[in-house]
Amino acid sequence: xxxxxxxxxxxxxxxxxxxxxxxxxxxxxxxxxxxxxxxxxxxxxxxxxxxxxxxxxxxxxxxxxxxxxxxxxxxxxxxxxxxxxxxxxxxxxxxxxxxxxxxxxxxxxxxxxxxxxxxxxxxxxxxxxxxxxxxxxxxxxxxxxxxxxxxxxxxxxxxxxxxxxxxxxxxxxxxxxxxxxxxxxxxxxxxxxxxxxxxxxxxxxxxxxxxxxxxxxxxxxxxxxxxxxxxxxxxxxxxxxxxxxxxxxxxxxxxxxxxxxxxxxxxxxxxxxxxxxxxxxxxxxx
Length: 286
Prior knowledge:
Number of strands: 0
Distance between the termini: 22 Å
Largest sheet: none
Strand content: under 5%
Helix content: over 70%
Radius of gyration: 18 Å
Low-confidence stretches: none
């Protein structure tokens, strides 16, 4: 029960992070935004926990690399597609995780299949994707969903080998390093000299609150809670609970951005809630 609660808290933090990411992207490019927020998250977790952990462990480069690719593809993809389409396509990792699990000999029970179907329908109704045709933005977001699914599976694997704090700090540091390199390359093409100009400092200040939320809460706390919860939670069940971030993103948009909520969206939220209940209750079908 505690693990499910931690995953739900993670989903809530990530849901509100969609608002922060949209606001942050008004000032910063995807790589600079991610570099700063992951650096904040790495420092936060290191100060709290990781510096006390064993220091002779190798970095989990694969896990950090997969998270970097997923986060980068999502951030860039959002620039070229609608928020609704991006939200729905990203959430499709709830379908991809169990497919990947089959290749890892993870059992796929009928109850979980029903929960995945309900979650997918719920996300579709909530996000109201305006356009799902093949496009550059949608393709990038779909690829990010695949990498997010891979990351969920990797978390389940690495939590048996690393302490929670060290694993969290390590993957954040890896993401920050990769993102910093990406920021340099991105701005060399887009706007040479930007990273050493006063404008960068002004843009960081303008995106200060989104960066703090994204770094301390979305990265530092939420991803760490995910790792802690997945020490005992199965990857597929974790994915079903985590995809409820769509509900919290919806609530955040209504509360902060004053976006409207209709009957269709409420039905979608109810389906997601039902999917979570299916995933956490005892086996109903033998």
